[in-house]
Amino acid sequence: MPDFGWIIKMAFRDFRKNISRLLLFVSSIVVGIAALVAISSFGENLTADIDNQAKELLGADLVLENSKPVGDQPLDSLALEMASEVNFASMVAFPKTGASRLTQVRALEGAFPFYGFFETIPASGDADFRSGGKKALVEKTLLAQFNAQVGDLIKVGEVEFEIVGELQKVPGQTGITATVAPAVYIPQAYLEETGLVQYGSRVNYNRYFLFAENTDVEALIKPFEDAWEVDRIDADTVEDRKRSTGRSFANLSNFLSLVAFIALLLGCVGVASAVNVFVKEKLASVAVLRCLGVASRDVLLIYLTEIIIMGFIGAILGAFLGTLLQFVLPAVFADFLPVEVSFGISWLSVGFGIITGLFVSVLFALLPLLKVRNVSPMATLRPETADSTLLKDPLRWLVIFGILAFIWGFSFYLLQNVNLAFGFTGFVVFAFGILWGVAQLIIWAVRRFLPISFEYTLRQSLANLYRPNNQTVSLIATIGLGTAMISTLFFLQNQLLEEAKFADKEDQPNMLMFDIQTAQLGDVRQAIESKGLPIMQEVAIVTMQLDEINGIDKKENEELSDEENYSRWLYNREFRVTYRDTLIDSETLTEGELIPVGARGDSIFVSFEKGFGEGNGIKIGDEVVFNVQGRPIKTYVGSFRDVKFNQVSTNFLVLFPEGVLEQAPKFHVLITKTKNDRQAADVQVEIVRRFPNISIINLGAIVETLEEILGKISFVIQFMAFFSIATGILVLISSLIISKYQRMRESILLRTLGASSAIVSKINTLEYFFLGSLASLSGIILSFGATWLLSEFVFNIQFRGAWLPALILYLAITGLTIVLGWLNGRKIINQPPMEILRGN
Are residues 737 and 755 in the same domain? Predict the structure, then answer.
């Protein structure tokens, strides 16, 4: 039996002597633990706030939604209060400046929201809006964009409304939603007068219900669900909203936890690297203890005790910082959250963080620490016998297996999906494997091909990359992965923005006009052509719904098993289709053929977009019955098309042949290209003034909105990537300080042999330049590969390298490494060798 009292005594004795260096071991995990605790606590607080504010998220006890007026319901007599809303996308204009924009118009009647309130400036804006008259509440982002203010007029359709309040916050709405589709609230009494609700307008009708307190709404609506299914009425309760919102933000929390977990893993690599150096320096002491009769097991337990102490301290520090970090996270994610997040210490998250930190410290430290078991007393005379290779030590392989199991188990705990956990583990192994391979390749290449003809200082600095106690592998793995994360973000953001800038491409249109009624088509076309603009596309659009697939209607589909049925979404959605017998530039036929009417008897063959059709279990030859304004049309799937939805064009999921829908009620879309933003604004003002019901999408404004949204998303991802970068920097600092003792001996030897301070300084500077360059370049190259894969297989866009951000990142990380290395070695360079030797 080991003498644990003696082991602890020896551990504390060695700990006192090496406390400053052991603190560096665990500093690497502090940031990762802080991120895990902060995000875990944030997730718990968010979940609690969603539960507490669920009614404010919905604004009512029940919401019924349909694309047609909901009409009277059996529940009407049971409700304490009711309200209704008609919402749709439409152009609004500011008469003072003539500027206009596509917004979300919400025509409101009643006291909605029943829970929560419209937060306005001035505070009396909501009450003023409800007092009657032609008054409007306008989203703050819309007012800021057009430099409008309370008291100005806003024109919605044919009616001008006075802006009586600047909307700051609407229950259940996020900042991103306000950016994409800013809302304008008007009284429903004036909706018909606006003239905006016409055929083809995509209109949603909502009815809100308030019931007596403690009413079981879920049980109350149960008898009516089948009838609502038939009428395609969507019912949303507080519990539904709580579940959907909770699911969405649970996924967000898990994603953020994975990012923090990557930072923790980077820190763990730093711990393993630092312990590896520590163990190498202790091998002589271990050999002496073995000569004195101490068992190898006891020696292992001495150093393991030190690691446990420092792991515990590091985990507590990380948990403390993570708790403080909760003050920051609600502000960082404010634009993405529909509720106010409160601050509270989650002791469960703190305990989880401390246990995780202690566990990973020991687990990753064991890999190099197990070397001490194989140190024999002979190592006092023959130091080369004091080490053992990984291949000869099955226990260290068991630790590696434990590390992989831990990564998989932790990711499964976060994702609750076996395949995703394997995918994440595979990604981590692949990324570290690539970076480890790069580091080993560099070490081998330098050792094998370093020319003897190189200048001495250059040769010496390159040789330091493979000499004992080098930090090449650990720095490339940690700094490289952190660099890869943040540079992939920059590259992908630039890719998406470049792809979105349609207005700068000569062959791409930049203005779409839709909801054009048939009677207006000629006048709109003439107005565009009178300004010398081309009509690049003119398309008729017919709205319809799907009734049957292969004879299975909506009700029969509900009775089938999950393996046999079609998606309920297919039966509930509204299809907008067009008709033509040819393909356009954004389409490619992948299977089957476009079959004109009459080519094969009386059958009508339609074409489905490939991803949509195959994703919903639809095959070539399937019979599909569509409902066009109450009239069923039997069709057969004749082909699949690959559609490039990222091109500005009228792209459709379903394409009919000519000769079927010409007489159906329809509206039209026109696409044109203006020469510049000024001309686009002029055209938009004239069309909206003459035809208020027509909606216009100006792609220049869309790009600006996209840039704003991507900027917000980018900030959040950069904030999370900062944990990885910060961990990498801490690993860099600790690695440099730990290697300082080895470099000190080498520098003393060089100074003793007559090397000047300038030569030693140059050697150190070049070594840190190579380390920083290799680490940053490895990460940047890995990010280029990741960006190419995402561009090619996820976003289907052309790969473009963001060279300037890559250069800036490379210079920043390389410069930081040089500066830290210089600060680390300046004591050695500036003092005489004898003074340093005496100090040691």
Answer: yes
